[in-house]
């Protein structure tokens, strides 16, 4: 399958969903290259950004599952072209 590089932004407005968000992120650990989180104290939102490399199907599966959680918004941006690996 064709590998793509992309970013996923996750906004969590219901902090009680954090356990589910972290579990889903762990389920897709094989495609995650980098994770950064920022809890906005007093603003009732946490932002998680991920750098990912995987198939479009795998990336979409992750964002779809995250986006179905109440109080969680998720968006992905993926490269249009296939990532070539050089030795």
CATH class: Alpha Beta
Whole-angstrom Rg:
13 Å
Number of domains: 1
The tally of strands reads 4
Q: Identify low-pLDDT runs.
A: none
Outline type: elongated
Number of helices: 2
Report the mean per-residue pLDDT as an integer.
92
Range of strand content: 35-45%
The strand order across the widest sheet is: 2-3-1-4
The largest sheet, given as strand count, sense and whether it forms a barrel, is:
4 strands, antiparallel
Structural class: alpha+beta
Instruction: Provide the succession of SSEs.
Output: EHEEHE
Indicate the CATH architecture: 2-Layer Sandwich
Tell me what you see in this structure.
The chain is an alpha+beta fold and 87 residues long. The protein has a single domain (4-78), classed as ACT-like. Chain A, domain 2 (Alpha-Beta Plaits), CATH 3.30.70.1150. Helix content is 25%, strand content 40%. The protein has a four-stranded antiparallel sheet with strand order 2-3-1-4, with helices on one face. A hairpin with a 4-residue loop joins strand 2 and strand 3 (45-54). The longest helix has 12 residues, at 56-67. The two termini are 19 Å apart. The model has no long low-confidence stretch (mean pLDDT 92).
Fold blueprint:
Blueprint lengths: L3 E9 L5 H10 L4 E9 L4 E10 L1 H12 L4 E7 L9
Antiparallel strand pairs: 1-3, 1-4, 2-3
List keywords for this structure.
elongated; Alpha-Beta Plaits; 87 residues; alpha+beta; 4 strands
Q: Quick summary of this structure?
A:
This protein has 87 residues and is an alpha+beta fold. Helices cover 25% and strands 40% of the residues.
